[in-house]
UniProtKB/TrEMBL annotation:
The lineage of its organism: Bacteria, Bacillati, Bacillota, Clostridia, Lachnospirales. It comes from the Bacteria. This is Phage portal protein. Residues 447-466 are annotated as: Disordered.
């Protein structure tokens, strides 16, 4: 883990040093913030500093689980609709292309604290703090100067591109591209012309304004960051990894789980057996021989008149340890924005209805809403960047567009919803065919036909059915 972390820091220093030298700028992110993000990334990747094979301390990588679950809730049934003009149709197509990457990108942003989405001409790239340097922010903490790092490998050669975005003094939006080539992936290498790389279609320096020479509304990228305040570097625009305040509890959880797992591993019943009781069939009694015993049998040398035999059944403390594990899970959940009891070691009890869930999980609901607001802001920035790029390269005609977002209800219960709808049918509040369409996957025609068939026939004038 130490080697991996050292390589990451070394590569980051090379990237920053070359960016500062080439563009004559300095990063605004503090070393303390860089160190915390690097520490959290190593934990997220399953390489925390506390793993110790000699002491039987492993990791269950619960930080990854937290990020996965949070990303799942944030993007649950997410919909992004862009409409209003041919430009809107073009933008909708671009969003549709990257739709299934949203959850993965959100998870990366949660683990790193920040993720930036930027158009690349044919799609969208995602950048985490290891791949960008913030050079300036406005009075509201919004990024208005940043250097991105991109790269690819061709044979034994490694190509790197630095892309510098900023607003210049006269409100012109400037983008500068510089390319480098090296023989190793852990170095920047020497500068090379863009024409000699796969970025040959890019200009070394480009300047962008609106058609009326006004300043762009925002930079050409979208920023997703966690919603909580940064208490490590209050001046930083970067977000904190969502588990950054629960690192100590994650360590304690790994230790508690490892102790329990080790106890179970060595809990096999052991039989202590007098060596005089082991003898191969057909051998003379009292003769010595080597006998391979089962794993759970241990031979002891008897020197008393009586033969020795004893079974040892280790007692497990699983139930007691489970209480401790659940305590750590509760701490971690609360520190990461969730309600107490969201994560437990075994099955959850109680909270069986959506109403109860809503009452017990208000903290979780508010946290996910805050993260969804951050995602909407990020997508607004990305869609605007896609619009500007489309206008610059003539990919779609200029035009106004509207963006609408939709998200799934995190407290929705399918079974409860189904039961409630059936009550409505029984109480004649809704027609039965609507229930069949919604919950039985029938078409409207099939459902109505079934409902019609189930209706009793009307009696005749003399009380008999025809």
């Amino acid at each position: 883990m130490g080697i991996i972390s050292t390589i990451r820091r070394w590569w980051g220093m090379l990237f920053k040093n070359e960016a500062e030298r080439e563009f004559k700028v300095s990063p605004v992110t503090s070393p303390q913030m860089d160190a915390l993000i690097n520490k959290c990334v190593m934990i997220y990747r399953g390489h925390p500093a506390w793993v110790n094979e000699e002491d039987n301390v492993r990791t269950i990588n619960f930080a990854k689980t937290i990020c996965e679950e949070t990303a799942r809730l944030i993007t649950l049934a997410v919909s992004i609709s862009v409409s209003g003009s041919p430009m809107g149709e073009y933008l909708q197509g671009q969003i549709d292309k990257c739709y299934f990457n949203l959850r993965k990108w959100v998870e990366m942003g949660l683990a790193h604290g920040t993720a930036i989405l930027k158009p690349n001409g044919s799609g969208v790239d995602v950048f985490t703090p290891a791949d960008f340097i913030i050079t300036s922010t406005d009075d509201n903490g919004n990024i208005n100067g940043i250097i991105f790092k991109d790269g690819y490998q061709n044979g034994n050669r490694y190509y790197t591109r630095l892309e510098y975005h900023r607003f210049e003094a006269d409100y012109v939006y400037a983008i500068s591209n510089r390319a480098y080539v090296s023989d190793g992936q852990d170095e920047i290498g020497k500068k090379i012309e863009l024409e000699k790389t796969r970025w040959s279609n890019l200009l070394p320096d480009a300047y962008i304004t609106k058609e009326n020479n006004e300043r762009l509304d925002s930079p050409l990228f979208g920023v997703f960051s966690t919603p909580d305040a940064n208490n490590v570097d209050s001046r930083s625009t970067l977000g904190l990894p969502i588990f950054s305040t629960a690192i100590e509890e994650l360590k304690d959880l790994d230790i508690a789980y490892s102790r329990n797992a080790y106890e179970i591993d060595i809990s096999q019943k052991i039989t202590l057996l007098d060596d005089r009781l082991t003898q191969k069939s057909g051998m003379k009694i009292g003769s010595s021989q080597d006998i391979k015993l089962p794993k759970f049998v241990r031979n002891v040398f008897g020197n008393s008149a009586d033969d020795f035999y004893r079974e040892i059944n280790p007692q497990l403390n699983t139930e007691m340890r489970k209480v401790g594990i659940n305590m750590y899970l509760s701490f971690i959940a609360y520190k990461c924005g969730y309600s107490n009891g969201y994560f437990v070691f075994d099955e959850k009890t109680g909270m069986v209805t959506a109403t109860q869930i809503e009452a017990d999980q208000q903290r979780t609901i508010q946290f996910i809403k805050d993260c969804r607001d951050k995602l909407e802001n990020c997508m607004d920035g990305l869609i605007y960047a896609l619009q500007i790029m489309a206008e610059l390269y003539g990919l779609a005609p200029s035009g106004q567009y509207e963006v609408e977002y939709g998200f799934g209800d995190i407290i929705y219960s399918y079974e409860e919803d189904k039961a409630n709808w059936w009550k409505y049918v029984v109480n004649r509040k809704i027609p039965a065919w609507k229930y069949f369409v919604k919950f039985e996957n029938m078409t409207e025609e099939e459902a109505k036909a079934l409902t019609e068939e189930a209706q009793p026939e009307e009696p005749t004038l003399f009380g008999k059915e025809e």
